[in-house]
């Protein structure tokens, strides 16, 4: 398996629209790897896309992928689903207008399916795409496993019950991909010592090297989001052979080069951590 990071931002892209901070200015001037679009990952082999942020068409057009066999969704949040119309953009062929277009499988874990029917009209949008023949919804129960091109895929419900990670197993290698929301999560024994774990970075309450407080203690985000320190504790529990961190928020005010320094700091302490950037590819 090869994993390609199409977008590595969190809820806010880098640069953030109209922002004039140093991190955003650098991102505008230099582009990738300093700039980041919304969260999305592609798994080569089974050719599966995980999540469709608003910028997904830009991400796909600059990527190395040439076929999508299915889409997995981690949860309903807007930064992960608002580009869902890409299904029509890929499947609809207005030039040749086939009578039966090749529908894309859209895999929805149990709670994601329910939430799509509740929030931001996602279910109605997906129903429209199904009626047009562009999408085929496949609902996954929490204990289901599906096989796509000889890769076994299992949804893993996290402690925040509306969000899922995915465990991938091709028979020789295992990978865990969690797109967001690690709050209060304790990984099971089944998930430990995987070959690669892809995790959300978490917000930086403190700078990992200097110890400088980066978020005020009473900020509401600390009640809603896992911190980087909490992510490190999960990494300690997982004992994965390699860890790649993504979902990096513009508000953390840490640019590409500063994140490289933080990775080096932790790797000198015995970790095997890297920070993803848009277009980054890693083989498992």
The total tally of domains equals 1
User: Percent of residues in beta strands?
Assistant: 15-25%
Largest β sheet strand count, sense and barrel closure? 7 strands, mixed
Which sequence of SSEs, written as H and E, runs from N to C? Answer: EHEEHEHHEHHEEEEEEHHEHEE
Oligomer designation: single chain
| CATH-assigned fold name | Metallo-beta-lactamase, Chain A
Give the C-level CATH assignment.
Answer: Alpha Beta
Cα distance spanning the termini: 5 Å
Give the number of helices.
Answer: 9
Helix content: 10-25%
The strand count comes to: 14
| CATH architecture designation | 4-Layer Sandwich
The CATH homologous superfamily is termed Ribonuclease Z/Hydroxyacylglutathione hydrolase-like
Categorize the overall geometry: globular
Largest sheet, order of strands side by side? 6-5-4-3-2-1-14
Average residue-wise pLDDT: 94
| Strand-pairing-aware structural class | alpha/beta
Rg from C-alpha positions? 19 Å
The poorly predicted ranges are: none
Organism: Gracilibacillus kekensis
Domain Metallo-beta-lactamase: 47-248
Protein name: Phosphoribosyl 1,2-cyclic phosphate phosphodiesterase
Pfam family, one: Lactamase_B_2
Characterize the structure shown.
The chain is α/β, with parallel strands linked by helices and 284 residues long. The chain has one domain: Ribonuclease Z/Hydroxyacylglutathione hydrolase-like (Metallo-beta-lactamase, Chain A, 4-Layer Sandwich). Helix content is 24%, strand content 23%. The chain has nine helices and 14 strands. Strands 6-5-4-3-2-1-14 form a seven-stranded mixed beta sheet. A seven-stranded mixed beta sheet has the order 7-8-9-10-11-12-13. A hairpin with a 4-residue loop joins strand 9 and strand 10. It is globular and about 60 Å long. The model has no long low-confidence stretch (mean pLDDT 94).
């Amino acid at each position: 398996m090869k994993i390609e990071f199409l977008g590595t931002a969190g809820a806010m892209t880098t640069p953030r629209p109209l922002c004039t901070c140093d991190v955003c200015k650098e991102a505008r001037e230099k582009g990738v790897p300093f700039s980041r679009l919304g969260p999305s990952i592609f798994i080569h082999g089974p050719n599966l896309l995980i999540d469709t942020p608003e910028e997904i068409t830009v991400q796909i057009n600059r990527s190395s992928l040439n076929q999508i066999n299915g889409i997995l969704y981690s949860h309903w949040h807007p930064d992960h689903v608002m580009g869902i119309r890409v299904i029509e953009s890929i499947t609809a062929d207005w030039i040749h207008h086939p009578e039966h277009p090749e529908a894309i499988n859209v895999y929805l874990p149990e709670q994601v399916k329910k939430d799509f029917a509740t929030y931001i009209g996602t279910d109605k949008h997906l129903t429209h795409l199904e009626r047009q023949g562009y999408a085929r919804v496949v609902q996954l129960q929490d204990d289901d496993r599906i096989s796509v091109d000889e890769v076994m895929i299992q949804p893993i419900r996290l402690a925040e019950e509306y969000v899922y990670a995915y465990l991938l197993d091709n028979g020789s290698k295992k990978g865990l991909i969690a797109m967001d929301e690690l709050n209060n999560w304790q990984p099971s024994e089944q998930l430990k010592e995987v070959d690669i774990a892809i995790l959300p970075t978490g917000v930086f309450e403190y700078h990992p090297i200097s110890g400088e407080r980066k978020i005020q203690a009473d900020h509401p985000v600390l009640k809603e989001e896992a911190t980087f320190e909490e992510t490190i504790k999960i990494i300690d529990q997982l004992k994965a052979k390699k860890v790649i961190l993504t979902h990096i928020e513009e508000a953390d005010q840490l640019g590409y080069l500063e994140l490289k320094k933080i990775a080096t700091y932790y790797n000198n302490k015995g970790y095997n951590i890297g920070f993803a950037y848009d277009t980054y590819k890693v083989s498992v």
